[in-house]
Amino acid sequence: MVVQRRNKPPKGAQAPRYPSRNRRGMGSGERGPPPADKNDKASRPSTPVPIALSGASGGRKGLGRKSLLLRLLSACVRGLLGLVLDQLSALGQRQSYSWNVTLVIGAFVGVLHWVHLTTLFENDRHFSHLSTLEREMTFRTEMGLYYSYFKAMIEAPSFLIGLWMTMNDRLTEFPHVINAVKRFHLYPEVIIAFCYRLYTGTMDLVGFQTKVCWNVSRGQGLNPVESCEGLGDPACFYITVIFVLNGLMMTLFFIYGTYLSRSQVGGLITVLCYFFNHGEATRVMWTPPLRESFSYPFHVLQMLLITHVLRNRQNCKKDFIFLMLSNVAFMLPWQFAQFILFTQMASLFPMYVVGYIEPYKFLKIIFVNMVSIAICFLLMFGNRTYLSSYFASSLIVTWGIMKKRSRIQKLRSPGCTSLLIPCFLWWSGTIILKVTLSQLFAVSDHIQLSDLITARILRYTDFDTLMYTCAPEFDFMEKETPLRYTKTLLLPVVVMISYLIFRKVIPDMSYMLSIGETLSRKHLERDESKNPPTILLVFHELQLFAFAILAIFIMRLKLFLTPHMCVMASLICSKRLFGRIFDRVPFENFVFALLTVMSVQGWLNLQSQWSIIGEFSNAPQEELLQWIRQNTRPDAVFAGAMPTMASVKLSTLRPIVNHPHYEDGGLRARTKIVYSVYSRKTPKEVRDKLLKLYVNYYILEEAWCVVRTKPGCSMLEIWDVEDPTNAAKPSLCSILVKDGRPYFTSVFQNSMYRVFKVN
């Protein structure tokens, strides 16, 4: 299908035609089987007319400007690659590097990544030309839920009133009142809302204009819409903050790669590998409001700081304070961050057992992590999941083992038992303590990453696990992913580096196993002078192994594996690992050849991303939301599919009983009742349960009645697993489509949605 892109030329000039694409990002964040949305990129002729100048910033974003931006972005990436190749000889011969130059290059790659993300996001949705309602509809599933709180805080009479409304929310799980900041980790929205109100208030005070608005004709019988650009528009401000934060993340990656390899070339290799494998490394350009978009940049900072702490024998208090702050910033926005930090402890503990980390330093790291958990617990209003996580349990067990290390050492003997006994005590103690704390704090019904991984290993299935594992982003890693890594040489390079690290570690392991004691202080002092020291090689290798396991079981967690592989690739500049190769082949020739081969597929990957041209439109959902606004009372309670409920709450402000944040046990029970419409239960039974939730209207999506993302993942198949006694009965969905009376009355219908009044 060929569509005409909306443009905003001064005299209504027509834009050229571009092919439309229906595309989903690297996991959409939806739970359960999503309906195929054939309306997401509809045709839109354009004859825009400017209607109101409420600001000068923003500007027009026609196709000419986008084409120029793409050419500029392409030139910058080629320039970055050329800079690396031109400076290989000079940079490779330096034993030290200037931090001023490092920061300048880091700032450049950060801006480059920000522009890259902005370009991909705009090209995919034509976001600058959408109306406010359309922009809200682009935030599907839990993205819309998070954005709704930002919207509520900026539209409230004051920031404090908006914050109070968010902390006493009655719309999201009606009739329950919940603290949404505590439940959904909304500190990013709180901070951005405060910054937005401060920005717009200041600009209004000094008389600066903040946005420009246009009247856009959409064609196809659709009404014209108003489209505003500039930081004065809430959605534009929100998205810009996210992309700037992730631009800063690329600056951190460059500094990280430079610091690990002690070479600016290593930092540039990290950046280029990230760009060449961008589609495997992040999905922020497709799903900006998700929690990892705010959390992951602070994970990069945390990894950089822990690397600094491990590298230096003497650390000042500031090092541990910054480490604590980065832990807090990483854990506050995202409920799964604690499990990632648990994998870090799982990597550090064996290093302590062998002797790579001295006890006094390891105790400081444990103390910093404990303080970080305590701060998060307080800032999240006593959210008990912080205290019952695997991360918290591992810290307590590690502290206990270190306090009793003299007794444990008596159990040691030369051989593998000297390593296996402490590790066995650590793992068994952590699991037992985690289960105990979960029961003690009554959070055993809270789904975590560990629960999903355990369900996959044990092949356990029920309604809740299937709602996760049937979603593409929670599926196993795609078989094509290793092939894509191989085409850009990222996987072969990391495998080669891992092999060389293994060769370096074998003598230390042999020494420790032969005498049954940890490595001596003299050994560590000799190793510290090497570049990089063995402690960093072992830590990053163990962390790579942990991230690989997570990514294999849950595809969504590629966002940890791929960037870490890019950081590991910086070690290609390490003379300690590749000294023999550099003795035979000049350093610059070796790296030049490697980058040349990498850039062949890497450049094709970038061009593939830049070629994604589309435009968001979802007329059926827009019609549904407009009908709800105009034909239902403000206190009418709605139920339906989780992605749609987020849009209903965001755009109509109607109370809902379920939403896409599926981790909470109470919400899962509510959603199970709501989704029984797609089961084989009787209409009366489902009606009675919905009335207990005070539901007035139910939104049925007919596609959900039959859609099947993969074998065993249609709603009927999921319900047949959960409710086998009714497996022979007809589906309730088909009954409602024909005639749901007297229990359900159809009051609205279009090509995608049916709204039933619950009688």
Defining traits:
759 residues, mainly alpha, three-stranded antiparallel beta sheet, 9 strands
How would you characterize the overall build of this protein?
With 759 residues, the protein is mostly helical. Helix content is 61%, strand content 5%. The protein is built from 34 helices and nine strands. The strands form three sheets. Strands 6-7-9-8 form a four-stranded mixed β-sheet, with helices on both faces. A hairpin with a 3-residue loop joins strand 8 and strand 9. Helix 10 packs parallel to helix 27 (587-610) and helix 22 (490-515) crosses helix 24 (534-553). The longest helix has 28 residues, at 234-261. The chain is globular. The model is unreliable at 1-63 (pLDDT under 50).
Strands, total number: 9
How many helices? Answer: 34
Mean of all residue-level pLDDT scores? 82
Task: Assign a percent range to the helix content.
Answer: 55-70%
Distance between the termini: 42 Å
Rough shape?
Answer: globular
Give the spatial strand order of the biggest sheet: 6-7-9-8
Q: What portion of residues belong to β-strands?
A: 5-15%
Decide which structural class fits the backbone.
mainly alpha
Radius of gyration, CA atoms, in whole angstroms: 27 Å
State the major sheet. 4 strands, mixed
Q: Which regions are unreliable across 5 or more consecutive residues at pLDDT < 50?
A: 1-63
